[in-house]
Amino acid sequence: MSFRVIFATSLLLALAAACPPSDRAALLSFRAALREPYLGIFNSWTGPDCCHNWYGISCDPESRRVADINLRGESEDPIFERAKRTGYMTGTISPAICRLERLSSLTVADWKGISGEIPACLASLPYLRILDLIGNRLSGEIPADIGRLKRLTVLNVADNVVTGRIPSSLTGLSSLMHLDLRNNRISGPLPLDFGKLRMLSRALLSGNQITGSIPASISQIYRLADLDLSANRLSGQIPPSLGKMPVLATLNLDYNQLSGTIPASLINSGVSNLNLSRNSIQGAIPDVFGPRSYFTALDLSYNNLRGTIPKSILAASFIGHMDLSHNHLCGQIPAGSPFNHLEASSFQYNDCLCGKPLKAC
Fold it and tell me: Which of 26, 194, 280, 357 could bridge to 99 as Cys pair (CB 3.0-4.6 Å)?
């Protein structure tokens, strides 16, 4: 076999193993809309094969189609270690990314300066499992058709300036396990059918402008372990059914406009980190503490609670931190655990509490 034939055969095999020219062109269009001045992460994006040594790019080993884009501005990768700095990138996320039809994960996170809108066409990528755009300056709304992504397990657009309502289609994300919309400018109510997200284990929506009441359907999410709705504009009462969720461990509802009373079900539930502070909750603290009451943190401060501190708290299996300050509580603080390790600040600014660690009755 001549050298020319061998060379031609080798070239054809190399081309067959390379990523398709259409994927390479899409990546180059994506890169052209971004500017990364300090680390040079795009310096490796050269040559015909975008599956080979292109920083942050992974391909399916069989089809050679681009499957993963993983570009993080905060990383322990040597490129960051050498530069002794975190990443900074400006520009926008080009809709050209949507030409990568086999894309499974898109992570463009913590670059601080990337702006513009989330491309609406991302909702047309049928294989997308992870969409992580945390820590940029992205604006506009969550794509209206986001619910088309039936394989999506992670949706993270936290720490941006996203506006608008949560699209009604979002509750159609039947595979979603992690939802993080924290620290944006999202407004309007939570979808009433939020409970359709049956695979969800974490729902983090704090630091927005969400209004309306907490949908009772949330309690239908069997796997939900972490629910953070703090620092919004939620009103109405806390659904008692939240206290009957089998694996809910963290419930943060602080800094809202919630009213009504504390559901007794929350005191005897599996919730171990409960923050209801800075609302307009009224009535008495439910006197239903027992062996199932295990709180690493229980914060009921800055409400309108009245009555006495229930003696049943002494029956709780554990209370690490408790804050009852800034209410209208009266009477003697019970003696014994957990009260013997709490500071006076946990009880101050009530109407007439007394006993250790406050002044004697």
Answer: 26
| Cα gap 81→75, rounded to integer Å | 9
Terminal-residue alpha carbon distance, the chain: 103
Identify whether the C-beta of residue 162 lies closer than 8 Å to the C-beta of residue 118. Answer: yes
Question: Identity (one letter) of the amino acid at 148?
Answer: R
Dump pLDDT digits (tens) for 131-171.
999 999 999 999 999 999 999 999 999 999 999 999 999 99
166 neighbors 191 (Cβ within 8 angstroms) = yes
How would you classify the pairing of strands 89-92 and 34-35? antiparallel
Strand partners of residue 235: 257
- The β-bridge relationship of strands 57-59 and 66-72 is antiparallel
Distance CA 186, CA 181 (A): 8
Q: Is the peptide bond before 357 cis (omega within 30 degrees of 0)?
A: yes
**CA–centroid distance for 177 within its chain:** 10
260-310 pLDDT, tens digit each: 999 999 999 999 999 999 999 999 999 999 999 999 999 999 999 999 999
Query: Where do runs of H (alpha helix) occur along 260-300?
Result: 264-267
> Concatenated DSSP letters for 231-261?
SS--EEPPPGGGGG-SS--EEE--SSEE-S-
Whole-angstrom Cα distance, residue 209 to residue 341? Answer: 37
**Rounded to an integer, what is the distance from CA 153 to the centroid of its chain?**
12
